[in-house]
Amino acid sequence: MSSKMSRRKFIQAGATAAVGLTVVPSSVLGKSMGHMAPSDKLNIVGVGVGGMGFANLKNLESQNIIGLCDVDWKYSKRVFDYFPNAKRYYDYRKMYDELGKSIDGVVVATADHTHAIIAAEAMTMGKHVYVQKPLTHSVYESRLLTKLAKKYKVATQMGNQGSSGPGVRQVIDWIRDGQIGEVTRVDTFTDRPIWPQGLMTPTKADKVPSTLKWDLFIGPAKNRPFNNIYHPWNWRGWWDFGTGALGDMACHILHPVFKGLNLGYPTKVQGSSTMLLNDCAPNAQVVKYVFPARDNMPKVAMPEVEVTWYDGGLQPFRPEGVPAGKDLNDSGGCVIFHGTKDTLICGCYGVNPWLVSGRTPNSPKTQREVTLSHEMDWVRACKESPENRVETASPFSEAGPFNEMVVMGVLAVRLQSLNQELHWDGENMKFTNIPSDAKIRTIIEDGFKITDGHPTFNKTWTEPVDANEFAAELINHTYQNGWKLPAMP
């Protein structure tokens, strides 16, 4: 279902195809894209606008919003009404074909499994991209977007808005100033999921609403009948579409950890959860990453560190010195840096950092202060030339490797029945210690019932599959239904 041929025809048609556009593209005005005056307005389109995409676009309404695309026009009606002059589309490929020469930037806020293909195509067209978190659904997709951003020199931003906030900057400043000493352990948690998880696959199909293009929602995933449990919004808990609570919230909560401790690829990982189903993320998870020692900073060493993630209501044990009764959940989560000198705690998005000792250090500022919104800072970067661009707070050069770490943790949960610590070769995107004869199977139905007062389970399992092949598919998805990613640069 590639749209390359139709796009070629569009380009050949030139000005004729652009008849009827109400917004003059930047190039016509003599402004080369990526090198514009700050007062110039970008021409922006949104793909996946019914949910978080609407919030992003409202933060960008000072620019020209020229196109809106969503597979569900009922869910998106309020967005269409808010931007009445924008052209409306079900299929982003048609929007790219029709508006392609006028587009400066693309905001992607679809279900996780389609982030990569929409953003990758935009970048190959030379468009700047803002992509909601998690950046992608798989490790390979994250690596691809990282390299495409570098190749095409476009401005990029992942939608983990806390990275533009003062809390993340404060955390980094304190760590780099040596205020908490060396960090060898970090505990993190979120109060998510707040959407249904741990569900059996529906056994019946619901009628597809007339306003929904279900085939476009499915995109590169495997075909399945529509059911109201998947859409809208509840797709996050289904493996084919989302990445569960870890993929959703770790991009917010782990960002100050990844950046503050200069983390790269983990070398070891273990996952554990409540009942692991084949199709739906579990109700609660624990994931432990091990990162090797990094180069020391001027004021503090960077030894090997363990980072543990909890979700689904699970929390780490409280550090010594934290006042009794104090709720560590701040804005949906928490990070606890265990240092040799002090313990640093902050909330989700890095908000409200504090030291257990009660001190408030006056550390040197090391991070660029973002005075605009997360979205508008991306606009600023879009208008700067690649040679002189000041990067955003979460460009793909950083967000890509960070997101690889996040979604690799999802793999650890899905491979937990191997009953072993998994060793990760980040550079080559593969696990190195899964036995060659190892098999994986997961639960389809739990078969729970009460028999003579006793709870019983008659579980239905998938057929055993090769564990290495299963892992490889999770790392680099086989796209279905004719969809295809561009080649890795």
UniProtKB/TrEMBL annotation:
Where would I find the Gfo/Idh/MocA-like oxidoreductase bacterial type C-terminal domain in this sequence?
Answer: 202-258
> What domain of life is recorded for the organism?
Bacteria
Domain Gfo/Idh/MocA-like oxidoreductase N-terminal positions: 44-159
Under Gene3D superfamilies, the record lists: Dihydrodipicolinate Reductase, domain 2, NAD(P)-binding Rossmann-like Domain
In alphabetical order, the GO MF annotations are: nucleotide binding
Q: Which InterPro entries match?
A: Gfo/Idh/MocA-like_OxRdtase_N, Gfo/Idh/MocA_oxidrdct_glycsds, Gfo/Idh/MocA_OxRdtase_bact_C, NAD(P)-bd_dom_sf, TAT_signal
What is the protein's given name? Answer: Gfo/Idh/MocA family oxidoreductase
Organism of origin = Petrimonas mucosa
